Amino acid sequence: MLTKRTSKNQVTLPKAAVQATGGADYYDVTVQDGKIVLTPVRLQQADAVRAKLEELGITPEDVDDAIAWARARA
Fold first, then answer.
1. How many CB atoms within 10 Å of residue 18?
2. Greatest Cα-to-Cα distance within the chain, rounded to the nearest angstrom
3. How far is CA 34 from the centre of its chain?
4. 36 and 3 part of one domain
5. How confident is the model at residue 74 (pLDDT cuts 50, 70, 90)?
6. For residue 1, pLDDT beyond 90
7. pLDDT over threshold 90, residue 5
8. Which residues fall within 8 angstroms of residue 17, CB to CB, at 6 or more apart?
9. Could you tell me if 34 and 69 lie in one domain?
10. Which of 4, 11, 53, 63 has the smallest CB count inside 10 Å?
């Protein structure tokens, strides 16, 4: 399959390649032996946010308090 790089460094992925990899919206880009390798990435954004909040020790009550504080300022 052939694709062309645009002046803005963009490429269009061939439909067959996207379908063969499950139609991911995000790809990890690496260079291996002079080749550009795209690896499909499935982002679980909600899970990542929950994990980060837990890592920071932020509780649901903290979030509720922050929302109440922000609304009170408006």
1. 15
2. 57
3. 25
4. yes
5. low
6. no
7. yes
8. 1
9. no
10. 4
**Contact by Cβ (8 Å): 37, 30:** yes
| Calpha distance 7→5 (Å, rounded) | 7
Cα gap 12→6, rounded to integer Å = 9
Co-location of 71 and 37 in the same domain: no
What is the identity of the amino acid at 68? A
- SS3 state at 63: helix
pTM for the model stands at 0.52
Structural domains of the chain, count = 2
Instruction: Tell me the residue ranges of DSSP E strands in 1-74.
Output: 26-32, 35-41
Domain that holds residue 33: 1-42
